[in-house]
Prior knowledge:
The protein is of the alpha/beta class. It has helices spanning 3-9, 30-42, 58-65, 70-74, 82-86, 109-119, 160-173, 188-204, 213-227, 231-263, and strands at residues 13-14, 20-25, 47-51, 77-79, 91-95, 125-129, 146-148, 175-176. The protein folds into 2 domains: 3-176, Alpha/beta knot (3-Layer(aba) Sandwich), CATH 3.40.1280.10; 188-263, Helicase, Ruva Protein, domain 3 (Orthogonal Bundle), CATH 1.10.8. A 6-stranded parallel β-sheet has the order 4-3-2-6-5-7. The protein has a two-stranded antiparallel sheet with strand order 1-8. Helix 2 packs parallel to helix 3, helix 2 (30-42) runs parallel beside helix 7 and helix 6 crosses helix 7. The longest helix has 33 residues, at 231-263. The N and C termini lie far apart (86 Å). The relative contact order is 0.14.
Amino acid sequence: MDTENIAKVAPLARACLDRVAIVLFRPQLPENIGAAARAACNMGLSRLVVVQPLDLHRERMAMMATGPSVELLDKMEVYDDLAQALGPFQYIVGATARLGGVRNQYFTPREMAGRLVEISAANDVALLFGPENWGLTNDELPFCHALVTIPTGECSSLNLAQAVMVIAYELFTAVSPKPHFVPRLANSRELETMYAMLKETLLKINFISHQNPEHWMFNVRRLFARHGLRAREAQVIKGICRQIDWYVGKRLENLKNRQNSTQE
């Protein structure tokens, strides 16, 4: 069956671009914010979030945005805290050029775009870009459900707007003939409260090291991110943590009472 007939039987699914936001973390130059807004607008994206920008000089941003993309600057969301900015999003993709270490699992823009066709149908997606000089550090990676890297030749340096354009283009052109339904997932705010409670519980039962708990929690985060948690499932995990806390507290109380009885 040719492509045209397949399309008649099952229309090709595309990403829901209205549910995808470009998130710029600590951008340094207003011109780069404007150029990123223009690239996003070119590819049908209408949400721009900026976190801890160094400079929001309006004229310098607008000079690079031009045309309809200036509207993205008009409704641009600005935050002082990354966790707060990412809180409403159910799926967060971090763009990185540095690989290795904890960044050993990643997708190309085309592979990621194919995944987002399905995910964006019922979930808000954030495409997270780091500052121009360093990119995303390991401190920001725990927020990310997946990483995307842009393959390059020997000259591997891309400016911020170029990176936004490449990933946004792949998302704009991505199609899926038979997408799998992805339900509404827990958002970042719900997950972060769950992870905080889970970390405290795992520390109490000595499941993770007290010296560097975030390192061990990164593996836990990766496990859950691979499968995707719904809001109700995150609540179940929090309930399990509360029950473990109660049980540990009860055991410690009983042990203390027995010790006091022995001493008497």
